[in-house]
Amino acid sequence: MNKNIKFALLLSFIFAFFGVKMNAQLKTGDLVDGIAVVVGDEIILESDIEEQANYAKQQGATVADKCEFVESIINNKLLIYEAKRDTLIENRSAAIKENAAQKYNQILGQFPDEKTMLAAYKFRTSYEMKNAIEKIDADNYYGQMKFGRITEKADVTPNEVTDFFNTYRYQLPQVNDEVSLSQIVMYPKLTDAHKNEIIARLNKIKQDILAGESFESQARIYSDDPGSAANGGLYTNIAKGKMVKPFEAAALNLQEGELSEPVESEFGYHLIQLVKKSGKMYDARHILLKAEPNADEIATAKKELDSIRTLILDGKLTFKEAAFRFSDDKRTKFNAGIITSEDGSDKMEKLNLPPTISYQIAGQNKGDITEVFQDTQAQDRKVVTIIKIDDVIAAHQLDIATDYDRIKQMALNKKKNEMVEKWVKEKLPNVFISINNRYKDCTFKTDWRKNTDGK
Question: Quick one: average pLDDT of 303-311?
């Protein structure tokens, strides 16, 4: 029997089963949570669509058109279905599960309590939300990996960029006011007395654990790590090379169940317990106490950075040299201090700058360097910073003369999307796809239904 016919019969049985079960329990007019779409052996439930839409909205994405959103999920599911059959794409299920738990705890840290968070994201239980995060992250991983495999050879020539610009020049977006910035960031150094105070606190926690307190409870009470504190400090399935070197070296030198001495890293001081080690993977708990500088230590760092600023202004040191020699920000110190946006561009819209930076560069001109100011980086780390205004670009229509790299990226993205569309059309006849009649009035860009006609 044809494989698609077999699957269609199975699907009709599943739909019938869900219909009988749920119609018996729900009142007329209630939304039935059943199968919305099937792509190969990938099933999309109505609740999956709602969960992804709610999660996307809470993360700042726009979900205006339900049909368009559903089609994006179908398109991604086809990529996912094929990705899982692609032997060159690594199965990362364990790492995705662990990252989902960490992400859950990070989101939880933004709310006063778990109940408020679940209500905001429209989940009934923590299990539902963790499961949804894991599913979304898994789908994103497999979808992106397959998209990358399909488009890995995509490229555009200068002539293609020019043709793209000439074709779409009047449709290209207006660019708002922009700036190009460089920075030097310094981490205030803790005094020896302050370091010893943090180490003493960590040693006291260690003694309490050795005296009978559980590591998990102490982590929940004292750890400053938002990614693991709520989970008793636990990280599972850690691959070698994933954690910062001091943490990993200390963890892997322990016996299972053993506690480390206080370990210093760029994040602060850790108390580590090795839970399990298996091959190249290990589980560990830790308690992190951040190395939070006090007012005097911040003032000392400001004074040091101000003296570096003076050397630059006096022409005794270039900003690039100073960034390489003195900046503690690893993302920019080897790149002349240049700050880049998420797409890799060194041009950033003023409207999208962090408030602290917007305030500091207000009224500054090209070539100016701000006074030293205090800022906060990831993990709420206090830093002192100076910013150089490399360029100020007024709002304008994208033009190939001034925005070639951006237009090239747009042309490349268009070519990649066309490659994926072509790939989808080639795959459609050989992949079973069924869409619930609830979406019969949707006008999709791709005719997903036609490949099941007559089969």
Answer: 97
The answer for 336, left when phi > 0, alpha when psi is -120 to 50, beta otherwise, is left
Q: Do 139 and 76 touch, CB atoms closer than 8 A?
A: yes
Would you give the DSSP letter of residue 262? P
Residues 36, 18: Cα–Cα separation, whole Å = 12
Six token digits for residue 431: 């992949």
Which of 121, 37, 21 minimizes the C-alpha distance to 76?
37
Helix (H) and strand (E) counts in the chain: 14, 13
Which amino acid does the sequence have at 379? Q
Per the CB < 8 A criterion, the answer to whether 277 and 163 are in contact is no
| DSSP label at residue 333 | G
Both tokens of residue 203? 């040693």
- Cα(12)–Cα(451) distance, integer angstroms: 17
Beta bridge partners of 396: 175
186 and 384 Cβ atoms separated by less than 8 Å = yes
Cα-flanking dihedrals φ and ψ of residue 213, to 5°?
A: -70, 145
Q: Are 175 and 329 in contact (CB under 8 A)?
A: no
Task: Determine how β-strand 433-435 pairs with β-strand 35-39.
Answer: antiparallel
- Determine the pLDDT at residue 354: 92
Sheet strands (E) in 154-249: 174-175, 178-186, 234-239
DSSP H or E stretch at residue 161:
helix 158-168
Tokens for 295, please give them. 């007012």
Average pLDDT in the chain:
86
Q: Give the list of residues 6+ apart from residue 30 with CB closer than 8 angstroms, or none.
A: none
- pLDDT value at 17 more than 70: no
Is residue 301 a contact partner of residue 384, using CB atoms and an 8 Å limit?
yes
> Which residue's structure tokens are 């860009």?
445
**C-alpha of 5 from chain center:** 40
pTM over 0.85: no
Copy the structure tokens of residue 288.
């992190």
